[in-house]
Amino acid sequence: MKQENMKIIEQKMLAPNIFEMTLEGLIVQEMLVPGQFLHCQPPTRSDLLLRRPISISSIDLKTSQCKLIYRAEGAGTKDMSQLSANETLDVLGPLGNGFPVEDISEGELVIVVGGGIGIPPLYEVARQARLRGAQVMAFLGFASKDVMFYLEEFQALGDVHVSTDDGSYGTNGHLGIILDEILPQIEPSAVYSCGPTPLLAKVDQYFEEHPRAYVSLEERMACGVGACAACVCQTKDKKTKKMRLKKVCDEGPVFATGVVNI
Ligand SMILES: Cc1cc2nc3c(=O)[nH]c(=O)nc-3n(C[C@H](O)[C@H](O)[C@H](O)COP(=O)(O)OP(=O)(O)OC[C@H]3O[C@@H](n4cnc5c(N)ncnc54)[C@H](O)[C@@H]3O)c2cc1C
Ligand code: FES
């Protein structure tokens, strides 16, 4: 883990209030697993003391660059969205345990299931799965066509199924409708998911006993490094059924299915 002022290479608006920020720095060489996050300091607002956790959406070790995709929602992320190329962003990371991808092998079917602003870390998962020769299927849910992003990027890696809550693109309704239709017909070797709680609960239920299925939680955080307990979630040991509180920032954000009380 490092703290670094990363150089902003590009800041691009992908959809209203959704930004893609390309960052360059030494810290990228430590990003070996998808699903980890950077804890970002709002750049100009000295009154905002807490960093904002944002997932790493893609990693390029060759150029020492990575990308973040984030929604400018509250004060801190709005502040981040004002930055331009050649400025810097103070980050701490890479933090958290990411998605295990090293056991993906050629020919396997890998599925990623993401909703809204939970989709970004799944792009690097899908990219690494494809590099390992797996067949990738992506299930992506958005509020509407206007706020869709990265569709072509996912389509370049495999089959993509999309739903929008308002029916403006793809299946009309929530992603669970597509999951209920397609999941009974396929047997994925590995499953990776990130997004709103009801979506994670659905994936967790479907794949509770699957040995390679994972959900990533986006719990509210303060320190991001395991020191303050702001981010605890309730988990159970799969064998003993004993309940235990775990810190999402350093014991997660990625957990195996069947473990977290979602
Ligand atoms: C591991 C992880 C990865 C994330 N990845 C992404 C991502 O890739 N793209 C993206 O747009 N968002 C992501 N989020 C959510 C993002 O961190 C929050 O939306 C953001 O921190 C809100 O800050 P704000 O300044 O916009 O809002 P404010 O309301 O000003 O934030 C106030 C405080 O609440 C915390 N907070 C508010 N909402 C959330 C939330 N949903 N999750 C965690 N903390 C929150 C903030 O960190 C801050 O400390 C992620 C969250 C976590 C925990
Ligand atoms: S945010 Fe402080 S322990 Fe997780």
UniProtKB/TrEMBL annotation:
<feature type="binding site">
    <location>
        <position position="228"/>
    </location>
    <ligand>
        <name>[2Fe-2S] cluster</name>
    </ligand>
</feature>
<feature type="binding site">
    <location>
        <position position="223"/>
    </location>
    <ligand>
        <name>[2Fe-2S] cluster</name>
    </ligand>
</feature>
<feature type="binding site">
    <location>
        <begin position="69"/>
        <end position="71"/>
    </location>
    <ligand>
        <name>FAD</name>
    </ligand>
</feature>
<dbReference type="Pfam" id="PF10418">
    <property type="entry name" value="DHODB_Fe-S_bind"/>
</dbReference>
<dbReference type="InterPro" id="IPR019480">
    <property type="entry name" value="Dihydroorotate_DH_Fe-S-bd"/>
</dbReference>
<dbReference type="GO" id="GO:0016491">
    <property type="term" value="F:oxidoreductase activity"/>
</dbReference>
<keyword id="KW-0285">Flavoprotein</keyword>
<comment type="pathway">
    <text>Pyrimidine metabolism; UMP biosynthesis via de novo pathway; orotate from (S)-dihydroorotate (NAD(+) route): step 1/1.</text>
</comment>
<feature type="binding site">
    <location>
        <position position="231"/>
    </location>
    <ligand>
        <name>[2Fe-2S] cluster</name>
    </ligand>
</feature>
<dbReference type="InterPro" id="IPR001433">
    <property type="entry name" value="OxRdtase_FAD/NAD-bd"/>
</dbReference>
<dbReference type="GO" id="GO:0044205">
    <property type="term" value="P:'de novo' UMP biosynthetic process"/>
</dbReference>
<feature type="binding site">
    <location>
        <position position="249"/>
    </location>
    <ligand>
        <name>[2Fe-2S] cluster</name>
    </ligand>
</feature>
<keyword id="KW-0479">Metal-binding</keyword>
<keyword id="KW-0813">Transport</keyword>
<feature type="binding site">
    <location>
        <begin position="76"/>
        <end position="77"/>
    </location>
    <ligand>
        <name>FAD</name>
    </ligand>
</feature>
<keyword id="KW-0274">FAD</keyword>
<keyword id="KW-0001">2Fe-2S</keyword>
<feature type="domain" description="FAD-binding FR-type">
    <location>
        <begin position="1"/>
        <end position="101"/>
    </location>
</feature>
<protein>
    <recommendedName>
        <fullName>Dihydroorotate dehydrogenase B (NAD(+)), electron transfer subunit</fullName>
    </recommendedName>
</protein>
<keyword id="KW-0665">Pyrimidine biosynthesis</keyword>
<dbReference type="InterPro" id="IPR023455">
    <property type="entry name" value="Dihydroorotate_DHASE_ETsu"/>
</dbReference>
<keyword id="KW-0249">Electron transport</keyword>
<comment type="subunit">
    <text>Heterotetramer of 2 PyrK and 2 PyrD type B subunits.</text>
</comment>
<comment type="similarity">
    <text>Belongs to the PyrK family.</text>
</comment>
<dbReference type="GO" id="GO:0050660">
    <property type="term" value="F:flavin adenine dinucleotide binding"/>
</dbReference>
<dbReference type="GO" id="GO:0009055">
    <property type="term" value="F:electron transfer activity"/>
</dbReference>
<dbReference type="InterPro" id="IPR017927">
    <property type="entry name" value="FAD-bd_FR_type"/>
</dbReference>
<keyword id="KW-0408">Iron</keyword>
<keyword id="KW-0411">Iron-sulfur</keyword>
<dbReference type="GO" id="GO:0051537">
    <property type="term" value="F:2 iron, 2 sulfur cluster binding"/>
</dbReference>
<dbReference type="InterPro" id="IPR017938">
    <property type="entry name" value="Riboflavin_synthase-like_b-brl"/>
</dbReference>
<dbReference type="InterPro" id="IPR012165">
    <property type="entry name" value="Cyt_c3_hydrogenase_gsu"/>
</dbReference>
<dbReference type="InterPro" id="IPR050353">
    <property type="entry name" value="PyrK_electron_transfer"/>
</dbReference>
<dbReference type="InterPro" id="IPR037117">
    <property type="entry name" value="Dihydroorotate_DH_ele_sf"/>
</dbReference>
<comment type="function">
    <text>Responsible for channeling the electrons from the oxidation of dihydroorotate from the FMN redox center in the PyrD type B subunit to the ultimate electron acceptor NAD(+).</text>
</comment>
<feature type="binding site">
    <location>
        <begin position="52"/>
        <end position="55"/>
    </location>
    <ligand>
        <name>FAD</name>
    </ligand>
</feature>
<dbReference type="InterPro" id="IPR039261">
    <property type="entry name" value="FNR_nucleotide-bd"/>
</dbReference>
<dbReference type="GO" id="GO:0046872">
    <property type="term" value="F:metal ion binding"/>
</dbReference>
<dbReference type="Pfam" id="PF00175">
    <property type="entry name" value="NAD_binding_1"/>
</dbReference>
